Structures are given as C-alpha cells and as structure tokens.
C-alpha cells in the first residue's frame, strides 16, 4: 500500500514517448529476473526429473551428430578438406557450438508457446519468458562446454589464453540465437508453420556454416560461407576454444554490433506484439 | 470510502469475427504502433469488426466492489482483461493507482512434475512476489489449502480439488492488492473450503477496489456495492443497487418457448392467478410470498387418457419445483381424452428472487409416452431485497422466545 504505482493504459503508441518506453522496458527486465530464474529452475528440474539420463541429454544429440560425421569422413563417404584441426575435434566443437546456437534460437518461441495459458490470464513482465529461455540455454551450454574441454583435452588440444575470450564467443552465439528467435516469435505464435520450418531451414543453414565442413576455398559455396553471418560466430568461438588465432574478428564484431541493435528493435516489437497476439490466442 | 483507485474513461475495444482478417488487422496494429500511430486505427470499424466493449466509464474507490453481469459474450471478461493489462484498448483511457492483483487463473504456471511446495514458489513469482515474502507466508498457505501431508509430493498426484485449493491459497494469502479483479473464482472446492474462500476474499475486498465478474447472482448481491449490466459490449445499467441490476439482468435472459412430444396433447393456455387476480403482461413480477394459482386449458387426443405434471424452472433451466397433478389419494390424476380446464393452487410463492418459467408435461397414462412437453411457458420474475443461496426463501417468525440466560 506504500507503493503507489500508477498504471495507465491508452491506445497511444508507446513509441510517442521513447524515454518512458525505455524506462519501462528496463524496469520490466529488472522485475522479470526473479520470475525468469524461478521458471528456469522449474523447467530444468521438471525436464531432468522425468528423464533417466538427466543432464546428459544436453550433450547426447550433438555427440551423436559428431559420431555420425566422424564415421562419414573416415569411411570416405564424404570428403572433407583440410580444417587446420584434427577432424574429430573440428566436428566435435562445430556441432556443440551449433547446438548452443540452436538452443538459443528455439528458446523464445518455445517458452512463449508453452506459457500461452499463463500469458492469456496473468499480467507479468513478458520479458521473463525470454530471459528464462536465455538462462536455460546458458546452463545447458555450460554442460556442453565442460564436455568439450574434457574431450579436446583427451585428443590433446588445449585452448591456451583463448579460453579467457571464449565466454565472449559463447555469449555472442546465445545473443545472436536469441535475436533470431525473437524475430521469429511473433509470427511463429500465429502460424505454427514457423515452428515446424525452423529445424528444416537450420539444417540447411548448418551446411552453409563451417560446422562439419571446412571453409571452401572457391566457387559459389565459398561466397555463401563467407557472407553467412553465422560463420564468424562459429569460427571465432572454435578458434578461441582450440587455441587458434581467429581470422574473422572484424566480421565477428560487426555481427555482434548489428545483433545488439536488432535485439533492441525486436525487443520493442515483441513488447508491442504481445498484447495483440494474446488477444488472438483467446483465453 | 477511500480514495479513487480506478478511473475508466470512454473505454472501447474492437474484435474481429474473421480469424484471417483478425490476424491481418493485428499485424497492421503492430505496424502502426511501430510508426508511432495509435492502436486500433483511431476507432473506425474495419470490415468484419464489431465493438466487443463500447464506451465504458466508471470510477471505483477503495472499499467499493463493482459487479459486472451480462450474458456470455457481453464483454465482461474482455473488459476485465483490458483492465488487467493483458490486451490494449482501442479507445479511451484507464488509470489505476496502487498494486493490481487478479484472482483469475488459479494455479497458473503449476508444473505437474514439481512438488506442491516448489509450485507455490513458481506461482508466487508469476504473481510478482519475492521469495522472502513467500517464505514468511508458506505455512499459512499450506494450512489454508489443507494439504500439509502432500506438500512435498508432485502436483500431478493431487486431486483436482487439491489443485484448486492450492492455487486459491497461494493467490488469496499472498495478494494484498489495492485493486482486485475477480472472475468467477470466489468459491472453489467443497462447501467447507468454499466458505473459507469467501471469507478470505471478503477480507481482501474490504480494503481494495474490486471488479467482479460472475453469473452467480447471490454472490453478486452479497459482495457488490454497485452493479453494471452489460449487453453487446455496452453498459445497459449502472446502479448502486445490486438487486436492481440483478433484476435487469434477469430481464435479458431469454427463456425459449419450446414444445416436444408426440403431439397427441396440446397446452391451449396457462393463466397465473396471484392473490385471486389473473395476472397479465410479459414477464409479470410476482411478489415474494404471494398466493399463486394456475388455470390450465388443454386438449388430450390420446384415447387412453393422460396424466399432467406442472414444473417451475429457473433461469438456468434447473427444475426447482415439481408439481404433479394428483387426486385426493395422492396418486397421479387421470385425465380422459377431450378439452378441459384445470384449476389448482400452487400454494405460496416462496422462491428466491430470480426469473422462472413453467414447464408442463402431459404423459399417456397407459404407455407413459410424452404426449407434449412445453417449456418456457409464462415466464415470471420474483423480486426480493436479497438474493439467497437457497431456492426457497421463508422467514422464521418465532412464536415464542425463551431467554434462558442473559450475558
């Protein structure tokens, strides 16, 4: 009762008053921390309580992927050009990092879709769902990275001083994934085609990113690989993790900068879109 | 009464009938807002749109409770959702001061695999409450929900009653709102728990401005200091007298006249007689406690004759009084084929306030086949000052009071 917060709802666009909008956005973000953490604990403990293998599920899929690609290259079915690393290490890091990006990308739509019932009945800071998605991705990513370091050590590859910079690579993967996920969420809520189409599209995109293949030297694929904004993210993170010197640092920074700008724009779009979407989700 | 906490001016909201267009308009609205324009295209109806809520104005002070009543689709829940900030208005303005709480979705965010205790924390943080605060209240919540033995078991093993009890307890114990929105969740669980709920809600409402949506007229009459009757999105009546609002609401309830059966009998007319006078008019009002009689004219074609049963049905089509026409022996009276008029007394009309109608059934006395069953006949209203939970309302006037001790 001592807190006399005044709430005003009008049809006016919040963009008319950008300062107020910005203040509200960061206030809601701060307010959503506790809830986001609670939702993260809820989802992770529920997820792992209902499985036998528990936290191993965070790594089983990328691990299986790695094994498949090592088999394909050993048996000569697929010819992979020189990667500068032993191929198992290359595939192992590539698929793990790619899996982290995918987790981040899928999280916003998944969280919002799973919370439809809550969204249509309770007014809570909607940012909490996105933040909870980021927390979950981050926790699962730490498990993956721990396994990566153990695996690489076993092959005899050590990150060296690059490990200090690797968190930046990890965070940019999660940020870029979240931005793409945030862009897809409003449309994805209305049309379930988006949720179904993402895995297909991403599978294709994976082959245009140096995840399991090395960077091609020439031809149209070389151009595609080079322009793909995901390329510098994967390469830089991998280089820091394996003790190599990153080649695409400039592009890496540019992608991150653009992502930060996009993050803000689509955060605003997300805020504006939620009431409109909730209206159409029904109660 | 305290200070004004809710102020609503000219609030309107459009909905769209066609799903595809609705999606498209939604995209337009988002686009317009991104360009800094107003939501909802300046209050002009686009094709296939209609006003789900139209020009609502009210102010509510601390300690007041506004009841929203009306048919399904009258716009009550939509209004509540706009007030709660879930969806945006297309016109008008809402200003609210203080902490807003809503008892709408009980147990939202419950995860079936987690234990009751874990879910209390999840639910509380969805409602925007801190862990420290919940820690200090957790025993109170568990005791209120009466599930101490099960609090560390997964919620999926709970009965549905335990689930709503826990959901209600979390919301009712933890929320200390200045403004409260209630949607039909006043009383959950069995009767003992329902009474506990009502008391808990009463305690919150005494110190808050409350907007309450319900179809339960006794609850409206008990809780509300003011009633708004909504119809097709607009306010039909805004009255500080709940029983006036309830009466208007009953006036909106359509009781369809419908006849079924083989058609070998026909109800020709029904006349009600109140205090020795036949009453006329559409939906007459019968004073509570009046002596009522019936004059029933009918034709029976079935050669084996028939039996007749007269029933009174309430606005929800529940049968509240069954009155078979019997002989002096207490068995069903036999009516031979032909046209006849039956006079009879229905006794004192002690039904509680509400809207009622007659259902009359004529059965073949041999085969028990329904010859005709007419429902929605002679709708009438009963008004008393207070809507009770019971169907029959009868005062006790003591013949004698013996005072055994004074204190």
What attributes characterize this protein structure?
heterodimer, A: 283 residues, 1% strand, globular, B: 407 residues, alpha/beta, Rossmann fold, Coagulation Factor XIII, Chain A, domain 1, six-stranded mixed sheet
Question: Overview of this structure, please?
Answer:
The complex is a heterodimer of chains A (283) and B (407). Chain A is mainly alpha-helical. Chain A contains 10 helices and 1 strand. Chain A is globular and about 65 Å long. The two termini of chain A are 30 Å apart. Chain B is an alpha/beta fold and 407 residues long. Chain B has 2 domains: 249 residues, Rossmann fold (3-Layer(aba) Sandwich); 126 residues, Coagulation Factor XIII, Chain A, domain 1 (Distorted Sandwich), CATH 2.70.50. Chain B is 24% helix and 35% strand. In chain B, strands 5-6-7-3-8-9 form a 6-stranded mixed β-sheet, sandwiched between helices. In chain B, strands 10, 13, 15, 16, 18 and 19 form a 6-stranded mixed β-sheet that branches. In chain B, helix 3 crosses helix 4 and helix 4 crosses helix 5. The chains are: A mainly alpha (283), B alpha/beta (407). Chains A and B meet through strand 1, helix 1, helix 4 and helix 10 of A and helix 1, helix 2, strand 4 and helix 3 of B. Strand 1 of chain A pairs antiparallel with strand 4 of chain B.
At a glance:
The complex is a heterodimer of chains A (283) and B (407). Chain A is built from ten helices and one strand.
Q: What is the C-level CATH assignment of the largest domain in chain B?
A: Alpha Beta
Q: What is the count of helical runs of chain A?
A: 10
What is the percent of helical residues of chain A? over 70%
Large-scale geometry of chain A: globular
How big is the Rg of chain A? 21 Å
Question: What is the typical, i.e. mean, pLDDT of chain B?
Answer: 86
Mean pLDDT of chain A: 87
Tally of strands of chain A = 1
Total strands of chain B: the figure is 19
H-E order of chain B: EHEEHEEHHHEHEHEEHEEEEEEEEEE
Task: Write the element-wise H/E pattern of chain A from the N-terminal end onward.
Answer: EHHHHHHHHHH
**Which assembly state applies to the chains in this document?**
heterodimer
Distance between the termini of chain B: 34 Å
Strand line-up of the largest beta sheet of chain B: 5-6-7-3-8-9
Poorly predicted runs of 5 or more residues of chain A: none
Radius of gyration of chain B: 27 Å
* Percent strand of chain A: under 5%
């Amino acid at each position: 009762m001592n807190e006399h917060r005044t709430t005003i709802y009008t049809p006016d666009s919040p963009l008319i008053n950008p300062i107020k909008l910005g203040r509200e956005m960061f206030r809601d973000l701060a307010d959503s921390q506790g809830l986001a953490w609670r939702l993260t604990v809820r989802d992770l403990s529920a997820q792992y309580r209902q499985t036998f293998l528990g936290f191993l599920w965070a790594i089983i899929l990328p691990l299986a992927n790695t094994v498949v690609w090592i088999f394909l290259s050993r048996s000569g079915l697929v010819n992979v050009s020189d990667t500068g690393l032993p191929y198992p290490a290359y595939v192992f890091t590539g698929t793990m990092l790619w899996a982290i990006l995918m987790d981040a990308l899928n999280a916003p739509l998944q969280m919002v879709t799973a919370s439809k019932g809550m969204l249509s009945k309770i007014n809570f800071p909607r940012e909490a769902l996105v933040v909870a998605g980021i927390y979950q991705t981050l926790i699962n990513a730490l498990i993956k990275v721990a396994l990566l370091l153990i695996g690489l050590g076993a092959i005899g590859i050590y990150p060296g001083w690059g490990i200090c910079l690797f968190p930046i690579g990890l965070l940019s993967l999660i940020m870029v994934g979240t931005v793409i996920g945030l862009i897809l969420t409003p449309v994805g809520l209305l049309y379930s085609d988006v949720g179904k189409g993402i895995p297909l599209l991403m599978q294709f995109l994976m082959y245009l990113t140096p995840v399991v293949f090395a960077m091609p030297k020439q031809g149209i694929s070389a151009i595609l690989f080079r322009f793909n904004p995901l390329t510098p993210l994967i390469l830089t993170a991998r280089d820091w993790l394996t003790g190599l010197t990153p080649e695409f640092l400039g592009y890496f920074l540019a992608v991150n900068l653009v992502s930060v700008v996009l993050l803000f724009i689509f955060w605003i779009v997300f805020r504006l879109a939620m009431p409109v979407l909730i209206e159409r989700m029904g109660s | 009464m305290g200070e004004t906490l809710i102020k609503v001016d000219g609030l309107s909201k459009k909905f769209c009938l066609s799903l595809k267009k609705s999606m498209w308009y939604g995209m337009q609205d988002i686009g317009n807002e991104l360009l800094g324009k107003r939501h909802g295209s300046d209050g002009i109806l686009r094709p296939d749109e209609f006003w789900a809520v139209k020009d609502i104005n009210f102010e509510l002070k601390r300690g007041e409770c506004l009841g929203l009543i009306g048919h399904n689709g009258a716009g009550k829940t939509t209004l509540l959702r706009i007030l709660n900030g879930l969806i945006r208005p297309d016109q008008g303005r809402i200003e609210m001061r203080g902490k807003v709480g809503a008892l709408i979705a009980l147990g939202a965010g419950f995860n079936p695999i987690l234990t009751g205790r874990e879910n209390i924390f999840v639910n509380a943080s969805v409602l925007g409450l801190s862990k420290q605060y919940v820690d200090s209240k957790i025993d109170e919540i568990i005791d209120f929900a009466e599930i101490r033995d099960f609090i560390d078991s997964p919620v999926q093993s709970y009965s549905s009653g335990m689930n709503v009890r826990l959901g209600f307890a979390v919301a009712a114990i933890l929320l200390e709102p200045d403004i409260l929105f209630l949607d039909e969740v006043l009383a959950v669980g069995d009767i003992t728990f329902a009474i506990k709920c009502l008391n808990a809600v009463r305690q919150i409402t005494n110190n808050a401005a409350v907007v309450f949506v319900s179809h339960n007229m006794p609850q409206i009459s008990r809780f509300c200091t003011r009633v708004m009757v909504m119809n097709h999105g607009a306010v039909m009546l805004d009255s500080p007298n709940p029983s006036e609002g309830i009466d208007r609401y009953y006036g909106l309830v359509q009781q369809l006249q419908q006849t079924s059966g083989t058609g070998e009998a026909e109800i020709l007319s029904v006349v009600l007689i109140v205090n020795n006078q036949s009453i006329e008019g559409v939906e007459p009002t019968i004073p509570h406690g009046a002596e009522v009689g019936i004059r029933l004219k009918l034709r029976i074609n079935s050669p084996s004759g028939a039996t007749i049963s007269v029933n009174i049905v309430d606005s929800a089509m529940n049968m509240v009084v069954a009155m078979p026409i019997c002989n002096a022996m207490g068995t069903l009276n036999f009516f031979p084929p032909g046209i006849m008029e039956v006079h009879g007394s229905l006794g004192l009309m002690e039904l509680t306030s509400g809207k009622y109608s007659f259902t009359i059934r004529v059965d073949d006395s041999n085969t028990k086949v329904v010859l005709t069953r007419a429902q929605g006949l002679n709708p009438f209203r009963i008004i008393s000052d207070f809507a009770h939970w019971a169907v029959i309302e009868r005062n006790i006037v003591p013949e004698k009071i013996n005072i055994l001790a004074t204190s």
